[in-house]
Write a structure and sequence with these properties.
about 400 residues; Growth Hormone, Chain: A; single chain; globular; about 80% helix; 17 helices; mainly alpha
C-alpha cells in the first residue's frame, strides 16, 4: 500500500495518481447519491403529502425527523464503528443505504416511510462523518483542499441533477419510483467503491473519555454553534422552497425544477470559490458568505414579485450555502486531533442536522401560523443572528488560531 493511502503525504509527489482520481470520483458519486436522498422529499413534498393525505407541514416532518435521527446517532454510531477499516465501512454503508431506499419505495403508509427514512439516516450519520476525512487521507497534503472540493462538488451536483431529476421522475411516474432509482444507483456506486477504493486503516477506536478534549477547544465549539445557527436559518427557508416558488412566486413545475437545478449548480461555484480564495482570505470569505446567506433569505419574499429576481437570489443562496459548508469542514479537520477527525466531523454532522430539523420545524410553524411567504423573513432573522456570532466570537478565535 502506498504511503499516502495510509494518510501520509508522499514526498515530492506533484500530481494525483490515476487510482487517487478514481477513488475521489467514487466518493463524489457516493456524496451525490447520499445528498440526493437526504433532500429528495423537498422536491416531492407536495406529492408525498397528497398521496398520504397529510399536510405539507406534516410531510415536512420526514425531513425534520431524518435530520434529528442523524443528530442523535452520528456520534454514538461513529464511535461504535471507529475501529472498522474505512473501505469496508464505506462499502457496507452504501449497501445498507441502497436497501433502505428500496424499503422507502415500497412503504405502505406515512409511518412506514418514516421508519425507512430513519434507516437511511443511520447510514447517513456515519457516511458524512467519514467521507471528508477519508478523501483527504487518500491524497498528499497539498491536494487536501481539492479532495474536499471534490466531495462538496458531488453534493452540489446532487442539487443540480439529483434533486431536480428525482422531482421530474416523481412528477411523471410517482415519488416511489424516485426512491427506487436512488436505490438502484446506490447499488452501482457500492460496486464501484468496492473496486476502486484502497484499503485505508482506521486510526483506532475513539473513547468517550476523549470528548472533553474536543469540547474544550473554543474554536471547535464556536464552529459548532455557528453551524447550528446557519443550518437552522438555511432550512427554515429551503425546506419549503418548492411550495414557496409555486404558491408565492407563481412559478410552474418546470420553472421550479429549473430553479432548483440552478440552485445546486451555483453550489459548484461556491466550491470553486472556496478552493481558490479561502486559504488566503478565510475571515473575509466567511463574512461575505454569511452576509450572502442572510440577504438571500431576507429578500426572498420581495424577490418573489419578479421571477428573474427570485431565480437570481436562489443562485446566490446556493453558492453561499455550499461555500459555508466546505469552509467549516476544512476548519474542523485542520483544528482536530488526527485520531479524532472522524468524531469531530460526526459532531459537525449531528449539529448540522439538528439545524436542518429545527429549521424545517420553524419553517413549518411559520407556514402554519403566519404564511409560507414568511419563511424567508424568519430564516433571515436567524441568519443575521448567526452572522453577529461569527463577527464577534468565531472570527476572532479563528484569527487567533491562525496567528493573524
Amino acid at each position: 500500500m502506498q504511503n499516502h493511502q495510509a494518510g501520509q503525504a508522499v514526498p515530492g509527489k506533484a500530481r494525483l495518481s490515476g487510482r487517487d482520481k478514481l477513488a475521489l470520483v467514487g466518493l463524489a458519486c457516493a456524496a451525490f447519491i447520499f445528498n440526493t436522498s437526504e433532500f429528495i422529499p423537498i422536491g416531492l413534498l407536495s406529492d408525498i403529502a397528497r398521496d398520504f393525505g397529510v399536510t405539507e407541514a406534516r410531510a415536512g416532518l420526514l425531513i425534520s425527523v431524518y435530520a434529528w435521527a442523524v443528530m442523535l446517532l452520528s456520534l454514538p454510531l461513529m464511535m461504535l464503528v471507529s475501529r472498522v477499516e474505512l473501505k469496508r465501512l464505506m462499502v457496507g454503508l452504501t449497501l445498507l443505504f441502497a436497501v433502505f431506499q428500496l424499503l422507502s419505495a415500497v412503504a405502505p403508509g406515512y409511518y412506514a416511510l418514516m421508519l425507512a427514512r430513519i434507516g437511511v439516516a443511520c447510514t447517513h450519520a456515519v457516511f458524512w462523518s467519514i467521507v471528508s476525512p477519508l478523501a483527504v487521507r487518500l491524497v498528499p497534503d497539498r491536494f487536501r483542499p481539492l479532495a474536499l472540493s471534490v466531495i462538496v462538488t458531488g453534493s452540489s451536483v446532487a442539487m443540480v441533477f439529483g434533486l431536480p431529476l428525482g422531482r421530474v421522475i416523481g412528477l411523471y411516474v410517482g415519488w416511489r419510483t424516485t426512491f427506487q432509482c436512488i436505490g438502484a444507483f446506490a447499488f452501482l456506486v457500492c460496486v464501484y467503491l468496492a473496486c476502486v477504493l484502497p484499503r485505508v486503516p482506521s486510526r483506532g477506536g475513539f473513547s468517550p473519555r476523549k470528548l472533553p478534549v474536543l469540547l474544550k477547544n473554543p474554536l471547535l465549539v464556536g464552529i459548532y454553534a455557528l453551524t447550528l445557527g446557519v443550518a437552522g436559518a438555511y432550512f427554515t427557508g429551503y425546506s419549503y422552497i418548492e411550495p414557496f416558488l409555486k404558491q408565492v412566486a407563481g412559478m410552474t413545475d418546470e420553472g421550479v425544477t429549473s430553479t432548483l437545478m440552478l440552485f445546486g449548480g451555483m453550489g459548484i461555484a461556491g466550491s470553486v470559490a472556496f478552493s481558490r480564495w479561502y486559504g488566503q482570505h478565510a475571515r473575509g470569505f466567511m463574512t461575505l458568505v454569511l452576509l450572502g446567506m442572510a440577504a438571500s433569505l431576507a429578500l426572498l419574499r420581495p424577490a418573489a414579485e419578479l421571477v428573474p429576481a427570485v431565480v437570481s437570489l436562489c443562485a446566490l443562496w446556493g453558492m453561499v450555502a455550499t461555500a459555508f459548508n466546505v469552509s467549516l469542514q476544512s476548519e474542523i479537520i485542520a483544528h482536530s486531533p488526527q485520531d479524532a477527525t472522524a468524531v469531530s466531523m460526526s459532531i459537525f454532522s449531528g449539529i448540522f442536522n439538528l439545524g436542518i430539523g429545527c429549521g424545517t420545524w420553524v419553517g413549518g410553524a411559520a407556514c402554519t401560523h403566519l404564511s409560507i411567504a414568511s419563511v424567508g423573513y424568519v430564516g433571515g432573522a436567524i441568519a443575521l443572528a448567526a452572522f453577529a456570532f461569527w463577527r464577534w466570537r468565531v472570527s476572532r478565535l479563528l484569527a487567533g488560531a491562525k496567528g493573524v
